[in-house]
Amino acid sequence: MRNLFENIASALLALILALLVWVAAVNEQNPMISGVFGEPIPVEVVNKPQGLDFVNPTQITEYVQVSIRAPRSVWNTLKGADFHALVDLAGLKEGTHDLPITVKCAEPAVRVESVQPSRMTIRLERVVEKVFEVKVRIMDDPALGYEARTPTVEPPTVKVIGPASRVAQVQSVVADVYLRRTKTSIQRDIVVSARDAQDNPVALLTAIEPSQVSVTVPVEQKLGYRDVSVSVIRKGQVARGYRITGISVDPSIVTIVGSPLAVSQLPGYVETLPLDITGATSDIKARIGLVLPEGVSILGDQTVSVTVSVSPIIDSITVQRPVSIQGLHLGYTAQTSPSTVDVILSGPLPKLEALSLEEVRVVVDLFGLEPGVHKVVAQAFAPEGLTVESVLPDTIEVEIRTPVGLVTPTPTRRTPTPTPTPTRRP
Asked: What is the pTM of this model?
């Protein structure tokens, strides 16, 4: 029996020694490492009691840093998503609470040694609601001569929700509206703002329901003010061959002010002083005063900017011109059929009226052509500023002959010459 016990003890000792050797070998190959994990871990707040809210959410800890111990092989594979940091509010009541921040890791081989910060102090308060009438504030002015009437709001009231101490700070709910020199009534959706007694925004409320309202501000013209259009009065005529293509005035509508009777008797427009356009061949730009009845004046600038656009009249004419020949081989003669063609030209009327027929040429190019009958496209040339619209007919029959006694050269094989095409000058 004693030998049996001695054998068992020896076996156990050998097993323990083998286990220690194995642990030492494993630890040498995959040692435990302690240190701070490189990524901050987001903190989740759970189980907030119903009817309570944070007085100051900005004081809630959003991230913690953790110190851990783990085998090297595990450490090298860890990710931020493997950790879960939370603060449990279950069962808490209204008041200030100092709570631990618990961090767990999904990897069993990882041990969390410390958390920084390790605790979070929060204050919970009862959530309350209070109804406020929306106050509309007009922040600027409509256009000169106009005034804003009493605004309307839909819905007229909103509900402010939040911790009791925050809601208690709210003295008014306002909707700020900017008119930006408008001449017409406006309707806009405006985000409302809760304000304290010093007109500062009250922050950290849970909600304002609804968060925006529809505001309508009627804008009307004051008595004795009126918007009228501007009519440009012209004197004279533009030069012959030219026409007026447009008249613009800036501003096209002006605001007049005066006695209500004088203003109401105006026909809805005012005229400019006469603008002389006699003999104009180009655009005219000028600042001109307005003709106003006694007791009526204009708000702002007393003149308007007028632009009269003047362009030449575009027309067309048809001229008959003889066909000229160029490029004929020395000693040859040629006859065209027809000998004259019609040329249709377009362009400004003054240029057409001043055109000399000698300035229009029609040419057929016979370069490289041998005796015989050929069809050649005519080319027409016109002075600068005029456009050749067409030549009728545009293809001319040309008969090339040699004088009696002149031996016609033996034709040589050559690449056919392409038929010239007419060109048009812009």
From this structure: 0.54
